[in-house]
Amino acid sequence: MINTKLIKMEENEAFALEMASKIWKDGGLVAFPTETVYGLGANGLDEQAAVKIYAAKGRPSDNPLILHIAQKRQVRPLVKEISKVGEQLMDTFWPGPLTLIFPKADCVPYKTTGGLDTVAIRMPSHPQARKLLEAVQLPIAAPSANLSGRPSPTTASHVWEDMNGRIDLIVDGGAVGIGVESTIIDLTEEVPTILRPGYITKEMLEEIVGEVKIDPAIMGVLRPDIHPKAPGMKYRHYAPKAPVILVEGKTDAVIHFINGQIQERGVNTVGVIATEETKERYQGGIVKCIGSRSDMESVAHNLYDVLRSFDATNVSIIYSESFSEEKFGQAVMNRLKKAAGQQIIHL
Ligand code: TXA
Ligand code: MG
Q1: How far is it, in rounded angstroms, from Cα 91 to Cα 72?
Q2: Gap from CA of 152 to ligand 2 centroid (Å)
């Protein structure tokens, strides 16, 4: 057991920066806020530190880590080459929630890239993340700071739930803004390919670089003949303790179906993920409002907190409404489908 410390960065910034840098330079683990979700950081050039991340999360070691940097000039030494498309995307979307995949340079250890010859890099825009990364001047490998398989953390207390006793420090920067992980785009293919949808949508990327593909493994049901290019996408993910079932169909039909389940199974054993527009229409059940249907950003922002909040209840099953997969909706539905382990009811 490690004695995990927690510092509110707002209250003592200089101390937080100094302590985080020291721990990172000594090969330790520090969780910190980004604009997407909290990350669990370690020196990405130190094999032993990367190994500690996998142990703390209980993460399979073939699942590569993203390197986080503070300045664009930090990219060059980490990669074999930067294509024109890479330059354009960095110029347009960095700092921000976009991760780029490049061919890796020799200095990046295979323990960080899960054995791959490519490396994922992103420059977060969260002001506190930027200060921490600037202070340490190292590429920081950081997966989401949750136990493997659990919903990603969007507050320091989510990180504490999963990581207390496993890491050296949690830098508390309050609740994050976006709430789902960065968009990942692979630049090592002929046509840039989205491996994980996020806040930066296909449409936004295509406006800058022309045609962009989507890895077919992202939205579909997992099939043995489709191998996701982002190894992390093949695991069940984002899941609360009770199973989640996603219900697709016209809103009235979805509500009618879920109300039927509540009646059948008992009002205290069924969880419901509802929206501002629908929450009053459930008869019993533990109903949590995830946001407004007309504002996907609110849904993304609340998604992981709502999933986690069911763990404090006695529900044995959670039914979730579903959303349009247009634009940012694709990222939200990708996470909900994974939380549901692909258990989807089409009405
Ligand atoms: O928003 C984010 O990206 C957050 C914050 C902390 O920055 N990080 C994050 O990391 O979501 P993680 O480890 O939970 O997810 C990283 C994903 C995994 O699905 C992994 O397989 C994929 O990125 N990935 C990393 N390096 C890759 C590579 N070289 N090739 C393909 N996929 C890669
Ligand atoms: Mg993750």
Answers
A1: 9
A2: 6
User: Which amino acid, 186?
Assistant: D
* Pair 139, 65: CB distance under 8 Å: no
CA dihedral 263, 308, 330, 175 (to 10 degrees): 140
Give residue-wise pLDDT tens across range 36-59.
999 999 999 999 999 999 999 998
> What is the end-to-end Cα distance of the chain in Å, rounded?
48
Distance 171 CA to ligand 2 centre (A): 18
Shortest-distance ligand to the CA of residue 32: 1
Q: Residues 174-227: pLDDT tens digits?
A: 999 999 999 999 999 999 999 999 999 999 999 999 999 999 887 655 555 666
> What residues does the ion ligand 2 have nearby, CB within 5 Å?
144
The confidence score (pLDDT) of residue 280 equals 98
Pairing of strands 39-43, 140-141: antiparallel
Please name the residue whose Cα sits nearest to atom 5 of ligand 1. Answer: 39
Which ligand sits nearest to residue 99's alpha carbon? Answer: 1
